[in-house]
Amino acid sequence: MYKGMPTLTRNVISKIEPVANSNGENCTKNLPTEMLYNIFAYLDLRSLSRCAQVNKRWNSIASDLHFYQEVDLKVYWDKINGNNLRKLKNKLQIVRKLDMSWCHDSTVITNDEYFESLKSILEGAKDTLTHLCLNYTSSVSEVAMQQIFKCPYLEELRLKNVTLDLLNNGWLKSSNELMSLKSLDVSLSTIEESGLIEILKKTPNLEDLLLNNCVYLDYVDPIITTVVNYNPKLKSWTSSGTFYKENSRVYEEFEKLIQLEHLDLTLCQPRLYGSSWLERIAMNCQKLKRLLLGYWNQLTDEDLLPVLTKCKELSHLYLPHTPKISSWDIKYL
């Protein structure tokens, strides 16, 4: 039973596992239920499953839904399939945080059963789910995405390196708004402009947006314009390695995001640009704390001067491979 368990888990279980004393009586049968609940609260998913097999009492306690409010399945990524997801459904009825990174059924040609089970889990937990992570899960079906947009309390959605199956963006236009969503990560995903724009329109309280290395996003103009119009509370924009070929004039739109604290445009230097957009950001984004402009090889000291003088809260300035910046101290502020 102990094989593969964390040390803490082994120590805890070894002290409470039902064993017979010298009189042949069960030493743990009189342990208060509250004590067992407190101990079980420290156990991981696998350990809870094993405890549920000890006896009926332990099974009843280990099956309590409150032990499954924060579930990390990525450690079992190679064992996840549609069948065991379906078995987990009843235990995830009030899950708040669900991490399924790397989880997909690699044993079948299609993931239909997997996605149907995922949809069923999301449907059952839609009124409690606040954090959902599906990073590196190969793909997310349109049906699963539709169910995600039925989770009114979702605050964080991670879809890094995922093939988003948004075959028809029409359903996005008619879907519910994710009023609670504050953080969205679609880095490395296959999402395109039209799909992302529709999602941004549905997330008015978004604060954190990650678009790193999204090769399918060709035009930054409509995306920044959408963010300005629909996501005025945005505090963090990260698009390292995306939009490299864009003209700089659209970057001036960032000045309208007055709540902006973090701006990462590493490897995003456009073909043509001037210093005016940085000056306007410095004038309007007074809360800016982090600015990352790595590989902007045309950037000069003069370009940066407005930011350095006006952004009083700036504490991190990342400027690797910017040969025209003369001061080493400036590069690593």
Automatic annotation (TrEMBL):
CDD domains per the UniProt record, alphabetical: F-box_SF
InterPro entries the record matches: F-box-like_dom_sf, F-box_dom, LRR_dom_sf
Database matches in SMART domains: FBOX
Domain of life, source organism: Eukaryota
Residue ranges occupied by any F-box domain in the UniProt entry: 25-71
Stated name of the protein: F-box domain-containing protein
Organism: Hypothenemus hampei
